[in-house]
Specification:
The chain has about 180 residues and is of the alpha+beta class. It has 2 domains: about 120 residues, Herpesvirus/Caudovirus protease domain (Serine Protease, Human Cytomegalovirus Protease, Chain A, Alpha-Beta Barrel); about 35 residues. It starts with 20 loop residues before the first strand and ends with a helix. The protein is built from 3 helices and 7 strands. Strands 5-6-2-3-4-1-7 form a 7-stranded mixed beta sheet.
């Protein structure tokens, strides 16, 4: 019995359906580097349904790298849980965050007579609030997915055709080796 070989070229990269997730602490009522304190109760309620997250407080739309739902947690922290955009710039930031190179974030807000209105957040290298940071970032787990595919189990994540093709290529390579 002879095995026939088939060559499949594939690009491997983040699936558009899994561009990554993050959880960040934007503000917590701590004294910031400017000598200010933003108390949790000063945030105008209700918070927006979603806020944009950019890089370095840029007001350029092309610098938006994600968005998420803001909320006040049980400890009074202003947090955002969201997803990275699928753009190359956002995936670059995601890699920096997931690999631990970029951990700091900063809140964007407007002061009004009724309180502070949350506008968004930013990934930054030096936050005003030294406790504002990324709490978690979801990375793609190609190895876990490949193991599941090779074991004949359903794909444990949403992989697009490019990644499935690469998994098949690796499986075929291991069989033919």
């Amino acid at each position: 019995m002879s095995l026939s070989r088939k060559r499949v070229d594939a690009l491997i990269g983040p699936s558009p359906s899994d561009s990554g997730a993050f959880d960040m602490l934007l503000s917590n009522g701590a004294l910031d580097r400017d000598g200010e304190v933003i108390p949790p109760e000063s945030w105008v309620q209700p918070l927006p349904e979603s806020v944009a997250i950019n890089v370095n407080h840029s007001d350029d739309v092309s610098d938006i790298v994600g968005s998420g739902k803001p909320f006040i947690d049980g400890d009074g922290n202003l947090r955002v849980q969201g997803t990275f955009a699928s753009t190359p710039a956002a995936q670059h930031v995601r890699a920096l965050v997931t690999e631990g190179h970029l951990r700091s974030v900063s809140v964007e807000f407007l002061r009004t007579k009724d309180g502070n209105v949350l506008v968004g957040g930013a990934f930054v290298t030096l936050p005003s609030n030294p406790q504002a940071r990324v709490l978690a970032s979801k990375a793609l787990d190609f190895e876990r997915r490949l193991d599941a595919i090779m074991a004949g189990k359903p794909d444990p994540g949403e992989m697009d055709d490019r990644n499935k093709a690469m998994a098949l290529r690796l499986r075929l390579k291991s069989i033919c080796a």
